[in-house]
Amino acid sequence: FEPDPQFVSILRRNLKRNGVRDVKIVDAAVWIKDGTAAWLVEGIDGSKIIDRSKNFQNTVTVRTIDLVKYLDQKIDLLKIYIEGAEFDVIPHIQNHLSKVKNIVVEVHITNQSKYPSLTKIIHSLIDAGFKISINSYGPWRDLIRQHIPRPTHSEQYLILSGWRVKHPDVAEEETFLPYFNIAQFAELQQSVIR
Questions:
Q1: What is residue 193's predicted lDDT score, i.e. its pLDDT?
Q2: CA distance 145 to 176
Q3: CA gap 96, 115 in Å, rounded
Q4: Residue 154 neighbours by CB under 8 Å, 6+ apart
Q5: Taking the CA of residue 45 as centre, how many other CA atoms within 13 Å lie in the half-sphere pointing to its CB?
Q6: How many CB atoms lie under 10 A from the CB of residue 194?
Q7: Strands 29-31 and 59-66: what pairing?
Q8: Which helix (H) or strand (E) segment is 101 a member of?
């Protein structure tokens, strides 16, 4: 799914140049119903559905599609990076996820008011039968570092990964802790080996 008119032609061109013939592009935004929506065109990966009443420049109207229509078949991996629309879409599709083996959702915490909606997403995935993990990425936030996002971006980004059955080839290994840097982790490993 690619609703952004700036990117859909690039996507088609890249697939053609790389000889990819088994991908169907749907030039619409994933949403909770079929129709149209206002789309903020940023020219980067942050383009998204916005409230029509907001006075943003660089907006266009895009077609929207109810994702439920596509969930009636077996899906190995459903990747949802929809720039804030996940708060509406995930609870909407919860009862239609039985044929999805694995799911990855990028969650945009634009401000503190999004945390109750984050819990709805987590409950939706758990209630749909997924085991989940939650990881943060992007600018680090803690007691002494507070990222100041641009007006149309998020304070924090999370990745929710969900699976039904662990893949037999999954790597099980100890990884470094997020508050360690790589050099500190290497030193720690050396001291444990000695």
A1: 62
A2: 21
A3: 24
A4: 84, 108, 109, 110, 138
A5: 5
A6: 5
A7: parallel
A8: strand 100-109
The proportion of the chain whose per-residue pLDDT surpasses 90, expressed as a percent, equals 54
Q: Are 141 and 156 in contact (CB under 8 A)?
A: yes
Cα separation, 189 vs 194, in Å, equals 9
CA angle 135, 162, 172 (to 5 degrees): 70
Q: What is the pLDDT of residue 177?
A: 56
Look up residue 6 and give its two tokens: 């700036």
pLDDT in tens, 143-154: 777 777 666 666
- pLDDT band (50, 70, 90) for residue 17: very high
Contacts 24+ apart (CB under 8 A), 69-76: 71/96, 71/97, 71/99, 71/100, 72/96, 72/99, 73/99, 74/99, 74/101, 75/99, 75/100, 75/101, 76/101, 76/102
Place of tokens 């942050």: 46
Single-letter residue type at 65: I
CA distance 29 to 65: 6
Rounded (10°) angle between helices 86-93 and 115-127: 30
